[in-house]
Each structure stands twice: as structure tokens, then as C-alpha cells.
Amino acid sequence: MGLTVDTAPASAPASDVGPGPRRRWLRRTLATLGGLLAVLVAAALFTAYAWQPSATAYASPYLARIDSHYADTPLARFHYTKTGRGAPVVLVAGGGQWLYSYRDTVPALVADRTVYAVDLPGQGYTTLKKDGFRYDLDAMAGALGTFMDAVGLRRASVVGHSWGGSWSLYFAERHPERVDRLVLMGSTGLDVPSSWDWRPLEFPVAGELMGKLMRRSDAARTLRKAFANPGRVTDEVVAEDWAPMSRSANREALWASQRNLDYSVTQRLMGRVAAPTLVLWGGEDRFDKPWQAAAMAGRIPGATSRVLPGCGHNVHEDCPAQANPVIAGFLNGA
Hints:
This protein has 13 helices and nine strands. The chain is of the alpha/beta class and 334 residues long. The protein has a single domain, classed as Rossmann fold. Strands 1, 2, 3, 4, 5, 6, 7, 8 and 9 form a nine-stranded mixed sheet that branches. The longest helix has 29 residues.
């Protein structure tokens, strides 16, 4: 009987087998995703820290109507208006806004007051001269004092709205001898969580992207939320707000302010305020809740609070017929 020999090669060990089509596909997919992620991260970092958006060109009808002034200091070239006669009052706009927000308030005060409406750093048409400005309480209150010094005001009444309220409050806390009367409208200053709308600004990269990629439509949506009466947010109001907001320095002020303003400090020092104080709020404020009016007034010696029904966060713009007589009456001692 013959012997049959099997000459077929033995199977190779599993470890010697090259990757199959599925494994090769998975590796290529992971490499592609990794490359895309690297590109996205690089693009985000470039946008956040290198790229600068262009400002919107806009011929402001409001600037054409008013008599703008500029005060040059080593810190900044302050844009402001000066109107009326009488005891001085300084109007400080909120974050992301400028002195335009007081367009209806100024005429209501000029009969009895010399009214200074000012753009602080990060607002309107004021230009910083120094790098590294921090947009914290010390920097912003210091800027207010620098402006007052530049226009020859040793002492004045101060009206501040929203973030501008906390800067004004801190100025009154640190320099009580310089403030006659204080009006805080929808003002930050209590150590409470900020609105969710602003929280993303607190995070590196995300905050810069939010600020730099903001469009006019985004700004318009935020502005409309600050009003309870939407008919008052006209195309002109949006355009007037957006044009200076689109400037790179003013965009940067948004995320820097959100990160650096420490309201535990303003809350702790409220007992130092010596000026008669009015805390004014809109009853339909969707950014800072109206209960804060009484809470803030309760911490400031002798302060009073007033909540106007049917008015939003920008109470003086949203309800000028209700708000401005209250402001004028308080400044005049009523």
C-alpha cells in the first residue's frame, strides 16, 4: 500500500496575518477624524486669539445730531456729551452699549442738571491708549474717576445701568466723597449667578469665539430680550447699538468683563455707600430678576428701590415716560 504525503503548506499563525479590510478602514477613519479635529482646533485657536473681525461701517444719525466731545487722558480718549446747566450728573451705560442708550434720559434731565453721558473703555467710541486693561471693578471705576478728573468734576451724581451700575456702585463705595446721588438701574452688584446668556463668555476660547463671531442678528436678539416693549427696538436702535459693538476692542470687553467683574466685592462694600441711592428696576427684566432691587437697596444705607411694571432690563430705554421722571425727581431731591 502506497504512502500519501500531504504537501499543502501549514496555515500561518494568526499573529502573522496582516490587517483585514475592516481594520484598515477603521484606522483610516480614525486618522481622518484626528486630522479633522486638529484642523478644527487650530481654526478655533486662530479665530479666538489671532483673527480680528472687521467693524461695521455706519453713519450714525445720532452722532450727527449730538455734540460729541473727547477728553484725552493717558488711559483713554473718552467720548462723551455735555448738555444742560446745573449740578453735574454722569450717565454710565451698560455693557455692550454706549451713551446712545441715554438718548431719552438726557433731555429729561437738562432743565436742572449739567448732564455728562460717557462711553467708558469697551463702550461706544472711546479708545483705550494702554494695553492690558483688565475690565475689572478697579479698572472700570478707575476709568470713571479718570474721566471725571479730565472734565473737571470733583463730585457729581452718577447714574449707571446694568454692568455700568456695578462700576458706578463700586466707584461710590471706594470714593464716597465724589458721589452726590447714585441711581442704579437693573444693576449688577449682588453676588448672584449671572444670566445664562453671558456664561459662555467666562470660558477661554469659547468666550472669544462667542464675542468675535457675534453678528448683528445676534446682538439684535440680545437687545430685544432687554425690552418688554418690542416696538421700541427699531432697526435704527439695533444699528446704533451694533456699529460700535462690532469694534474689536468692544467685543473683547465683553468676555473680559464677564470673567473679571467680582460682585462679591461690590456686595461686601455696599455699606460704604454714603450717597442717597435709588435702585430702579424693570418688572419684566429677563436678565437680572426684579427681586434684586429690594435686595440691593436693603444693603445700601438709606437706599430706596422702585420696580416699574411692564418694563424690561433696559428700563430707561424701554419705558422712558415712566423711568425718566423718577430719575429726574430723585436727582432733584424729590
